[in-house]
Design a protein that fits this description.
The chain is 83% helix and 0% strand. It has a domain at 20-64. Helix 1 (5-34) crosses helix 3 (47-56). The relative contact order is 0.11. The chain has 65 residues and is an all-alpha fold. The radius of gyration is 16 Å and the shape is rod-shaped. It contains four helices and no strands.
Length: 65
C-alpha cells in the first residue's frame, strides 16, 4: 500500500477536526466553570485556566478582530 498525498490530506483533515473538537470541549468546560464571559474568566480563573481559555478560543478571537 502506498501512502499518497490524498491519504496525507485526509489524515491532516481528521487531525484538525479532532483538535478543534478537543478545543471546543476544553472551552466549554472552562465557560461552565467560570461563567459565560471572558470577564468572568479574567476575574475568577487562575493563570492556568486563563491561558487555557486563551489557547482554546484563539481562533474565535482572531476571527472577531
Amino acid at each position: 500500500m502506498v501512502y499518497t498525498a490524498e491519504d496525507f490530506n485526509r489524515d491532516m483533515a481528521e487531525r484538525k477536526a479532532q483538535e478543534i473538537l478537543e478545543k471546543k470541549k476544553k472551552l466549554a468546560a472552562l465557560l461552565d466553570k467560570y461563567g459565560e464571559s471572558r470577564e468572568a474568566i479574567d476575574m475568577n480563573a487562575d493563570i492556568r485556566d486563563t491561558m487555557e481559555y486563551m489557547v482554546n478560543s484563539g481562533d474565535e478571537l482572531i476571527d472577531a478582530t
